[in-house]
Amino acid sequence: MEVDEVRKGFNNLQDNKKDLLLYYEAKTRQVSDWLVGMNGRRLYNFLSEREEEYKYAD
């Protein structure tokens, strides 16, 4: 990189409000995906264990 290009970039810095909103959106999606994944895994395990019980109940 040229020194002039770096100076030009620093002279044209923009407010980060738009990027901050994208960060909050991504963080919210990450937490919701984690919660859904945790509960989905528990439900899947519960249902598969229940299915195994019915297989051997006969």
Chain-wise SSE layout:
Layout lengths: L2 H9 L5 H39 L3
Summarize the structure.
This protein is an all-alpha fold and 58 residues long.
How would you describe this protein?
The structure is a single chain. By secondary structure, this protein is mainly α. It is 83% helix and 0% strand. The model has no long low-confidence stretch (mean pLDDT 87).
Number of continuous helical runs: 2
Indicate the proportion of strand residues: under 5%
The major sheet is characterized as:
none
Secondary structure category: mainly alpha
Q: Report the helical percentage.
A: over 70%
Spatial gap, N to C terminus:
74 Å
Q: Roughly what is the average pLDDT, rounded to an integer?
A: 87
Number of strands: 0
What does the overall shape look like? Answer: rod-shaped
Spell out the helices and strands N to C: HH
Low-confidence stretches: none
Radius of gyration: 25 Å
